[in-house]
Amino acid sequence: MDYLEQQKTSNRLNDPKKYGIVKERLAERGVIPLDIAKLTLDLQKPYLENVTIELCLEHVDKVLLKREVQHAILVGIELDVLAEKNLLSEPLLTLVKSDYGLFGIDEILALSIVNVYGSIGLTNFGYVDKLKPGIIGVLDDEGKKEGRCNTFLDDIVGAIAASAASSLAHRFAV
Ligand code: MG
User: Fold this and answer.
1) pTM for this structure?
2) Suppose 96 and one of 28, 50, 78, 83 were both cysteines; which one would form an S-S bond, judging by CB atoms 3.0 to 4.6 Å apart?
C-alpha cells in the first residue's frame, strides 16, 4: 500500500468519498493538484534538500483528503460561483464580486484549512497570500475579469499549498 492509500484508510479525519468531488470542483475552477504542488515545492525547497514534485503532490493529496479541508473548499468555491451568477444578496454580492480588500472572510475561511496544520501552515499561508506566486497570481488576475470571481479560490489554493508544506515539514522533521 502506498503512502496515500495508507492515509485514506488509516485516518478518521479523512473522507475519501468527498476527495474525488473536491478535486473535480477545483478542476472546474481551473486548479489541478500539480499547480498547488508547485507552490508547495517552492515553499519547502529551502528546507528539504531532496524534496520532489511527486512528494509535494502526495502531501497536497493528503491535505485534500481531510474532511475539514474539503468542507472549506466546497463552501469557498460555491460562494465564488454564486457571485458569478449574481445569486448572492446585497451587500454580500458586491463584497464578494469585487474582491473587496476589507472583506476578510475569504482569508478567514482559508485559515480554517491551515488551522489543521499548525504554525508552519499559518506562516506559509501569509507568505503566499502576500506574494501570490504561480497559480495564485493567475487566479487573482482571472478573478478581476468581467463575470469571473475567484475571491475565495485564491486563498483556498494558498492554504492548501501552505498546509502541504507544513505536512511535509513535519513528515521529515529531524
Ligand atoms: Mg481572496
Assistant:
1) 0.93
2) 83
